[in-house]
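Lecture 7, part B: from sequences to assemblies.

Below are the input chains for today's worked example.
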Amino acid sequence: MSARALMSVALGAAAVGGLAWLGTVLSPFHLRVGLSIFLSAGMAIGWYILGGFARYYSFGHTVFVGVGAFAAALTLQTWRFDGWVLQVATGVGAAMAASAVLAAVIALPILRLRGHYFTIAMLAVALVCAEAASAFPVFRGSIGLTLPDVAPPSVRPERFFYWMSLGAVTLAVAVAALIARARLGYGLFAIREDEDAAQMLGVPTTRCKVLAFLASGTITGLMGALYALNLGYITTDSVFRGALSLDMIVNSLVGGMGSLFGPLVGAVVMTLLTKVMLGDFLEYHLAITGLIVVAIVFLAPDGLLGLAEKAWRRVRGGNAGGGADPR
Amino acid sequence: MSAPILVAEGITRRFGQLAAVADVSFAVAERTVTSLIGPNGAGKSTIFNLLTGYVPLTGGRIAFRGTRIDGLATHRIARLGVARAFQIARPFRGLSVRDNVKVGALYGRDGPRDVAAATERGLRLAGLEAVAERPAAELTIGQLRRMEVARAIAARPDLLLADEPLAGLNPTESDEVLASLRGLVGEGMTVLLVEHDMPAVMKVSDRVLVLDAGRLIADGRPEDVTRDPRVIEAYLGAEAP
Amino acid sequence: MLQTIVNGLLYGGTLSVAAVGFSLIFGVMNVINLAHGVFVVGGAYAALALWTGLRLDPILALVPIMAGGFVVGAAYQRFVIGPAVRRGSPVAALLVTFGLSLVVVNGLTIVYSSAVRNVSPAYAFFSVRIGDVTIDAVRAIAFVTALVLIAALALFLRTTVWGRMIRATAQSELAARLCGVDARRVYALTFGVGSAFAAGSGVLIGMIMPFTPAEEVQWTVYAFVVVVLGGVGSPAGAMLGGLLLGLAATLTQTYVGPVYTNVVMFMILLAMLLVRPNGILGSAFRASR
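Predicted structure of the full complex, as structure tokens:
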């Protein structure tokens, strides 16, 4: 491992440690804010593994949140274990397995599509799965499913889920960072830039996309399970939500599509903005998010990190006495 | 001359009524520079597309090192050791020059071995070390062309298909690219070249194949081919001495 | 069986109108309008408002609603989609259409709640029996209206100057521009016409079935399926695709179960995209694979 990689791992570990420690001191309200940030950051990272690395924009990623949530709820209702470790492991394991299976089944046909076609096909996948969850009595999506309270009595539920989701988002970032540094990551970047050229250079584009889709779906499913466990009660409408798909995209976009920090920064900013500052206007949440998308596309196409980078370059370029940017 | 690395037998490609390539057979000897020339529309680029599996054959067969490769997926052919440098450079614009070359190395023949060394070698042979950290979007046309070659050779191919690597280059840049192509042969590679710049072709090639209207009309040493009356008529025409 | 086929065809007519605008916009501009379903649902709510407010018959309401759809659609293209395409990429345009559709759905939900609505004019309960087949008057009227609308669009594209400009731009923007066509105006016009038809189909849908704001996604996806079935850009293709989809939906509903309708539609979509990405009639599907 290079010195730089070691450094980033150390910094990441320190950040996670710091956030975990914060969990012991924060008020219940702030714990809930943190939890929301982690959940949406984790989903955004899950989306980013396909959407950011390979620029295959899924507009139906909520399907994995929904499938993960339902898998967790249904298994935990069927097998009633004692002890939170076993319960969480079962729920999360079932969620990840179900999402991975779904991803594996639809990957080959759907990833043959490019651009708009992939985007809208994912929208259709989400629509169909949501309908199935409502329509088939086994899933009980229209009545709703109750999940057991998995938090141990000795820990406040907010704190418990704060730590759980912190753990999950750490895992998500670690997986994404590993992919980005691995051969697979370079294959995905090549696909993002020019899929035909990538293929002619020997990149097995189909396999790369399928692997990314699997990782992406599984991580999103994991976040879906935690989302459901934290809610305690789910229906089709609460977990198969177009708004969730949108949030994943918007978080990545607001932060910037250039690096893994993008979805993280975006999740922090957007959660604080929509849930905390505009918390009193919850019914306008969708409209606000929609307007932010429009604003970002027009004003900051490279996201907040892109803006920051540009500003930084301008400052530095000014000091050096000349524009560094050849454009 | 050594054993052929690539053999095409009667390869044909029809687009509807039009036969872009009709019953063309040739062999490329190992460790040579073989050039494919012919007027515009003669079928040179189609042959490259057929060899790399980007366009399927409608007739004939292609063997690389004795193995049939027609019908294989593009990336499989690339993995066997056939690399292609595009006529119009297709850089991964958002990646640095080094990462562009690294993709070639990572997915080259035999998978990822000595990726760092292969990347550096590609950069060095193409003379791109100075700009390695720059985004590919910022390169000049000549640099992009060299990056195509670097990306292709980082894949450690046995056979490099170079599609008009000199087009749009100034004489100095042309000479640099030609020298690096000869250098590749020195390192054990085989080069199949499509090029319009006749003096360059004559200078660099061991053997020349001439196409006209989808058919092979001549095949031989450069000096013999230029004297072939059919070639003069079909291709060199009035320009011929 | 006959009854099911008749119902399927009647439904298909409405689907065709709902899709033809999407098809036109996609064919001419290569933009997938994810807000298309919003125009459909918006048309239905506009019909509801005119019906409850002014007792205006939905068929008469088509005229102001389609005119309104045209103006809004053209403005939308001019001030939002066009700049988004120029500044970013087709994906940026896709995101913008998605974002704005959420704004509108949110607005509709706040005004009308997410409850199921419908528009029922006086003749909504009449029906005619021919042999064993019962035809609801309202469905028949919707179907005939749909045929008239599609035929009118086909005539417009074929015979008028503006129609020819639209078709020329679809073939090649550059060539059209070189011949003196103002591509920007053509785009606004196309978007306006497409949106007008979406809003019009919303009126028909409001007459024959209940609707909610959140259904917009479904209508966008249906429009896409119809386009994939029939091919991009032509009214005839949209008609064919719509009728086929209507048949498939009704047959599934009757013989397999209503639960499976969308599943079957989705299977058709995937199968078509993989097997024949140019649609049954075939057309330029540029970016598929």
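Note for the exam: Chains C and B do not touch (no CB pair under 8 Å). Keep this in mind when comparing with the next example.
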